[in-house]
Specification:
The chain has a single domain, classed as 3-Layer(aba) Sandwich (RbsD-like fold). 31% of the residues lie in helices and 18% in strands. The protein has five helices and six strands; from the N terminus they run αβαβαβαβαββ. It has a six-stranded mixed β-sheet, sandwiched between helices. It is globular, with a radius of gyration of 14 Å. The mean pLDDT is 97.
Length: 142
Amino acid sequence: MLKGLDPLLSPDLLQALAAMGHGDEIALVDANFPATAMARRLIRLDGVEGTAVLRAVLSVLPLDSFVERPAATMQVVGAADTVPPAVADFCKVLAAAGETAPIDPIDRFAFYDRAREAFAVVITGEPRAYGNILLRKGVIFG
């Protein structure tokens, strides 16, 4: 255990977040996502809701301020304008973390392509459909 860190930030997840460079992406995905088949680096947080993982990650990860939309979610197949409950909750977590940029809703297969290229994929225990989000790492200005 470390002081001041969310306990959901496992050693593997912390290592991945620290090793990511500016512009790298990490995918936080739901329990239905084909993460094992897609991930270059797979981190398992089974049994943990996606919003809790997002909150923990945002406590240490700066989002990219050089792009208009540093977060992306998967659109609902056949209803691209629908905002699933998991995505609505992601928006609340982002807002609470001070992130004001809109989320980029992208096609399912575009999301899969980006997840395949992501620095890491974190599979959560999120049971809700479309509980997937991509985050692009930013820079800490010192």
